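User: Fold both of these, please.

Assistant: Here is the first one.
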Amino acid sequence: MAQNTNELMQKEARLGLFSGIFAYFIWGLFPIYFKLTERVPAIEILAHRIVWAVPFGLIIILFRKQLKEVMSALKNGKTLALLTLAAISLSINWGLYIWAIQQDQIFQGSLGYYINPLIYVLVGVIFFKETLTKLQILAVILAGIGVSILTLYGGVFPWISLTLAVSFTIYGVIRKQVDIGAMPGLFVETIILLLPALIFLGWLQSKGQFQFQTEDLSMKWLLIAAGPITVIPLLAFATAARRLRLSTLGILQYIGPTLQFACGVYYGEAFTLAHGLCFSFIWLAVAVFSWDAWRHREGLKPQP
């Protein structure tokens, strides 16, 4: 009996590990998708991502029998208000990231998701009066040095990276206050954003600027695919989150920005000495922070 229980736990852990790797792998390859669709303006892609995520998300919600949780959230004023704020933060994060990829700023996007866990730490200290370990303090200092080098010697203030990190931190902090699952929460957020997205697409059509209407069939399918590529990795992450320790998820989350960084190299973005020094300090900060989290079995907040 004990052996069967142990085997079941190992099977569940393996499923969680593979699901987590799959989720972060897909997130890490997002630059490829946004490069394939770059002739469509970033804000229209954002609108498509919202619109097509709704029907695909509904299929998942019905399959997982989570409609009751969704309806409960829609009827609760406080929950709906918090999810509205979360949806606004998420849309800013999504929209800026898409625009950054189109502007050949993949390195800045990657940097943003590397420093995101460190921003969480600072928010915890400033707003929730949390205390830092010595290694966490060291990690934050190292990250600060890296950003300062890129700003002072590279002549580039990494506003894209910082905005991505801060907006996603705000999203994560808000979602932490809401008692709702990952998939139902995302579905409610996309419902909240659906009407503005549809109005915007309708406005584009009235101005003759709706590119979905004029693009070839392959691009149309790519834009429709924005729905499943938004929902599927989140579903995989939800599967992983239920089966893995948060410390393990915290380590896995760096698969995403690492693959994004590799995409930046592949697409030939300019990588200066300042970039090299900045990322060296960031990677060192990540190593220190991850080691400290692993020692204390503390979780790092991962991306959606």
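And the second sequence with its predicted structure:
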Amino acid sequence: MDKIRVLVTGAWGSMGRLVMEAVCTAEDMVLAGAVDPAGAGHRAAEAVATAPDDLVVSGHLVAAIEDGKPDVLVDFTTPAVVRDNVETALKHKVACVVGTTGLSETHLKIIEKMTRTYSVACFVAPNFSIAANLMIQFAEQAAACFEYAEIIERHHERKKDAPSGTAAITARRMAEARGDDFVVVRPEKEHEGFGGSRGAEYHGVSIHAVRMPGYVANQEVVFGGCGEVLRIEHITTSRQCFIPGVLLAIRKVRELEGLVEGLEKILDQHVT
């Protein structure tokens, strides 16, 4: 069986380097290209020792696709460029796996339309961690049983979007599972000394975003009831937790149709 040829955009970033390393060590994959203006002109092996010696990081996606002839593009860039990257890949019949967060509903609708236009699939996940996706599913189950809920998400200081994509999708799926807004707690004569101290609100769910060194990507979902509190917490200690989900998506994306969102859609077996 031919190996899956993978091109990584955002290759010079933290996640990009991890993805390149994982692809290079996977028996069924080969790193066919790397794109990142920040690393353009450098050998990929400078970032990942197992990368092909002759692979140079490109600053131009079209050229990298034409040279590397990838089957799958993996994008860990920014919301400002991901849409153009996906459109370019789909035009060239390259399936896409997107881990870039901060995509708006408008972005997703545009991407879905493009997958239909070019008849190539795109898989998007706000979080590729297996445990994080289980956390979201557990929160969905609990949402039907509680009227009060809040989310506290904690990430490293370089994360640009707030709330995180994981927090946003968690809140959305909790509201959908409940079938109604959660109850907003507003004590009589409440005084909010600092604006925004109660967090952002989504369908009655208050969301609090913490940004500081020491965190990778943590999230706590809290439900309140009469005389009890339920906490569902996911803690990461390394970005390595995202890699099994990324590799699974690379292996499955070409079997999909259109735009598919969420790791749970393809998480039908234990992944190690």
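The chain has two domains: 4-127+239-265, 130-234.
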